[in-house]
Amino acid sequence: MNNVLDHIEDILLMGAGPSLVTPEVYSALSRNTLGHLDPYLLTIDDEVKALLRRIMNTNNDFTIPISGTGSAGMEACFVNLVEPGDRVLVLINGFFGMRMHEVASRLGARVDTLEFPWGTPVVVEEVEKQIRRESYKMVAVVHGETSTGARNPVAEIGSLLKGSDTLYIVDTVTTLGGIKCAMDEWNCDALYSCTQKCLSCPPGLSPFSFSEKAMTTVKTRKTKVPNWYLDVGLLDDYWGSKRIYHHTVPANMIYGLCQALLLFFGEGPEKVYERHMQAHLALVAGLEEMGLEMFVEKPYRLPTLNVVSVPAGIDEAAVRRRLRKEFKIEISGSLGSLAGKTWRIGMLGHTARVENVARLLNTLRKVL
Predict the structure, then answer these.
(1) What is the pLDDT of residue 113?
(2) What DSSP string describes 131-159?
């Protein structure tokens, strides 16, 4: 029988995610599967929780990998914290801010938005004016907008909310592991990410943390959390001291995440962040030499996700298809209003290396 798995190609993943996976993580994924209540898996669970606290720079007790991709982390934030009629402010400057708005609206929240042009950051002064005008149960923002490559001033927004009752939700899907994330310093109450970008692990888990204030909000809800699978009260029964069955956690994915985090700290956080920055700078310099323009202005660019304007007369999808078919390189097209107008090039995790940048640049020169 022909096995379709025999024909999987070795692709240089330089899109918006997933990123390249290290051999050590692949090896970890292949280890013997343990039951979800096996005592040794619970030991590994505890190690992963401790490592996630370190990389997020938080002391939050409820810090776990949600079983699901980053979108599950987003959904878990809102489904646990929002009740019908709650006032929510979502700061939007790209596709994933729009998704936050969609999720909160489906839960019956009264959602206000502040919207900014795609490719520009959220303006802190506008946020300050809005939260002075209105009182909100929560404010939500994306740290690194995956759709545009823009970095938002999450620390400054968090400082506006310090000492208030307002909950602060931050999406770090494209930044955790590639840029320093400091949950407690940001006054952040709910943070989520994913495994397949800067952590260089396959997709399947969402690193996730709730502050004590967020957990108290869940415990004092007037209504039951409407999603059983993502109910943090039930998840805490498994991940906390009780160790009560909730669902069958993906043991091998937890091994992979554990190994990825050990590699991160083995290399050293500052060295990892510098590697991402140097790869980003090399990419930008090479693209600009070719006459290509970055979509985001210099001070606001993400080093982890680089968005490039497509030159006039170029079929952006045709370029991506040729890169993939002939040269075994993947880059991403864009989303929403930018579809067909920009390319997204990831400097994510294990992918963020100057030798990968050189290969892509040399290939683009041939294709363009």
Answers:
(1) 98
(2) HHHS--SEEEEESEETTTTEEP-HHHHHH
Q: Which two tokens stand for residue 361?
A: 């640049």
Q: Which residues contact residue 298 at a Cβ distance below 8 angstroms, ignoring those fewer than 6 apart? A: none
Q: How far apart are CA 74 and CA 212, in angstroms?
A: 18
Cα torsion through 229, 235, 237, 241, rounded to 10: 160
Q: Which fold has domain 4-18+268-367?
A: Aspartate Aminotransferase, domain 1 (3.90.1150)
pTM exceeding the 0.70 threshold for the entire prediction: yes
Beta bridge partners of 232: none
Handedness of CA 267, 273, 278, 283 (dihedral sign): positive
At residue 1, the pLDDT reads 83
Q: How far apart are CA 52 and CA 37, in angstroms?
A: 21
The parts of the chain modelled with pLDDT lower than 70 are none
**What is the CB neighbour count within 10 angstroms for residue 325?**
10
Ordered by start, the domain boundaries in the chain are 4-18+268-367, 23-265
Nearest to 19 by CA among 197, 172, 147, 194: 197
CA trace torsion 226, 230, 234, 237 (10° rounding): -170
State the pLDDT at residue 301. Answer: 97
Instruction: Quickly count: other Cβ atoms within 10 Å of residue 202's Cβ.
Output: 19
Q: What is the bridge-based pairing of β-strands 342-346 and 167-171? A: unpaired
- Rounded CA separation 150/116 (Å): 11
Residue 186 CB neighbours (<10 A): 24
Give the CATH number of domain 23-265: 3.40.640.10
Is residue 60 classed as helix, strand or coil in its secondary structure? coil
Q: Which residues pair with 343 in a beta bridge?
A: 308
Encoding tokens for residue 331?
């880059």
3-class DSSP assignment, residue 228: coil
